[in-house]
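Cross-check.
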Amino acid sequence: METDLKICENRENSEYFEYFMEKALEQAEIAKNINETPVGCVIVENNKIIATGYNRRESDQNALAHAEIAAIKAACEKTGFWRLTECDLYVTLEPCPMCAGAIINSRIKRVIFGAFDKKSGAFGSVINLNDYPFNHKPDIISGVLEKKSGIILSEFFKDLRENK
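Predicted model, tokenized:
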């Protein structure tokens, strides 16, 4: 998927991060539309989205079916390699310990997330796996489109409670 070159010229530009976070939010919408917790993820290499994922735990009845895991698996299949050292991962919610472990193990270069996860966030909220002596530490950029990422989650759970 090609992107607007003006946005991609400066990889430290907030518009660049927001562009790809919007793409992750589109994945979260897909999850929401199938009654899954609305978390979405995209993996970017050389300014192009190479993989996407969204939560499917309920649909698949699989505790491993998180957005990040799906996207990492797809990126490995696309590249033919398990090391994703030149890739950035954008996800709408701070990764949990399982997903943070997969990110570390796949050598993702940088993680950009939207909303903080005060219950299971593993890059700062509950624990920070980058504080431990693992052989890889991805760069972390937090709070990109944080409000928008949080709203989709809070509205989903509000609707879920009201429709019980």
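Confidence is low (pLDDT under 50) at residues 1-10. The two ends are 40 Å apart (CA to CA). Passed to J.P. for a second look.
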